[in-house]
Write a structure and sequence with these properties.
Layout: E1 2-6, H1 20-43, E2 48-51, H2 63-75, E3 80-82, H3 95-98, E4 105-107, E5 114-119, E6 122-126, E7 149-155, E8 157-158, E9 174-175, H4 177-182, E10 187-191, E11 197-198, E12 202-204, E13 221-226, E14 232-237, E15 244-250, H5 257-268, E16 274-283, E17 303-313, H6 317-321, H7 326-336, H8 342-356
Parallel strand pairs: 1-2, 2-3, 3-4, 6-7, 7-10, 8-9, 10-12, 15-16, 16-17
Antiparallel strand pairs: 1-13, 5-6, 11-12, 13-14
Helix pairs in contact: 1-2, 7-8
Length: about 375
């Protein structure tokens, strides 16, 4: 049997880092990604399509999204199995309750494993999050009650992998890899982690299209062949329609804004899609840099998202301290203030000097 697995699409994501127009375009890209997934299922004549949760954002979904999902899953002409996660949890106001699904869609609605026989001797056990947080582990204490091949579909956190996943991930429905085998399950198909992982007895597909910078989406859909002995073969596919890049530009020695713009243009010249540029380094005091000044330097991109990293202003504090000026007195006074630690002293000096020079830009606090 061949199954196509995906998870963590997060339709209707807010995309807070993007402006209104770009955010809307990114949400459309997620819909286009789902169309890629359903097309792939048809092309490979999969026996079923599986989603391991976080299909959409519970707090933001629209009626239009509900109808889009209904039509898209109807179009695959194969069984579709949905296991709600912590972002698309199954509750009274859930999108899942508002759609009159076609008969090929099977929704797991209980917060414990429930069986569905895919074919004789092959059972898929699925479970749902029924709240946005504090869902207990589905595998803990569970044991299959039948022979044949037993598979699981759910949204949860394999605890040993938490440190290797994206920051901010909470342990929803936690489990350990050893619990999969102990429960009598041959393999588990799991969502929640956006970084793909192919373990011996469980598979995280990862997110199929990047949601934020630093995510390595691109092979987030898995075509799985299930053998009669319960082992699986996995073939990963790229269905992403978006390109999101993270670039760092070092500005050491830069003396004016034009040089900054030139370096950013060079750094993103060969890229497409959306690029976040992090500016770092030590710049001359005369540089008046604000991230907004860089947003339009690469019109070939869908968007350039600039931000300040560790940027320092290269003041010669020893020379300034010798000046018989207001600036010199300010430097001497701050240096003599024993109540300040070094990091605070540095921030006070740079902020004050920038203000005295009439250049109180965003660089002042770095």
């Amino acid at each position: 049997m061949r199954l196509l697995l995906f998870s963590d699409l997060h339709l209707d994501t807010h995309f807070r880092w993007a402006g209104a127009a770009l955010a809307r375009a990114r949400r459309q890209a997620l819909r286009d990604t789902l169309r890629q997934i359903t097309a792939l299922a048809r092309t490979h004549q999969a026996d079923a399509l599986l989603c391991a949760g976080d299909l959409y954002e519970h707090d933001r979904f629209s009626p239009d999204t509900a109808q889009f999902l209904r039509a898209e899953f109807e179009s695959v002409d194969m069984p579709v199995f949905l296991a709600p996660g912590n972002h698309d949890w199954y509750g009274p106001q859930s999108l899942y309750r508002q759609v009159e699904w076609t008969p090929n869609v099977h929704l797991f609605t209980e917060d414990r494993f429930m069986p569905h026989e895919l074919t004789e001797g092959l059972t898929l056990w699925g479970a749902a999050h029924r709240a946005p947080a504090n869902t207990d582990g589905f595998v803990d204490g569970f044991s299959v009650d039948r022979g044949g091949v037993n598979l699981a579909l759910f949204h949860g956190s394999e605890t040993a992998a938490m440190g290797f996943q994206e920051s901010g991930k909470l342990p929803h429905a936690p489990f350990t890899a050893s619990e999969i085998e102990s429960a009598g399950l041959d393999h588990a198909f799991v969502g929640h982690f956006h970084t793909a992982r192919d373990a011996e007895r469980h598979t995280y597909p990862g997110n199929p299209d990047p949601l934020t910078f630093g995510e390595s989406a691109g092979r987030g859909v898995v075509l799985i062949t299930v053998h009669g002995d319960g082992t699986v073969e996995r073939e990963r596919h790229d269905v992403s329609v978006s390109q999101v890049h993270d670039v760092t530009v070092h500005l050491d020695g830069v003396s004016h804004l034009g040089q900054v713009r030139e370096q950013v243009i060079a750094a993103v010249a060969g890229l497409s899609g959306v690029v976040r540029v992090t500016i770092t380094g030590e710049v001359a005091p005369d540089v008046d840099l604000r991230p907004a000044d860089l947003a339009t330097v690469a019109p070939h991109l869908d968007a350039l998202v600039p931000r300040l990293g560790s940027v320092r202003v290269a003041y010669d504090l020893d020379s300034l301290a010798e000046e018989p000026t207001v600036r010199g007195q300010f430097v001497r006074d701050v240096r003599d203030d024993t109540s300040l630690d070094e990091a605070t002293r540095r921030r006070v000096l740079i902020t004050g000097l920038r203000a005295l020079d009439g250049r109180a830009s965003e660089l002042a606090v770095h």
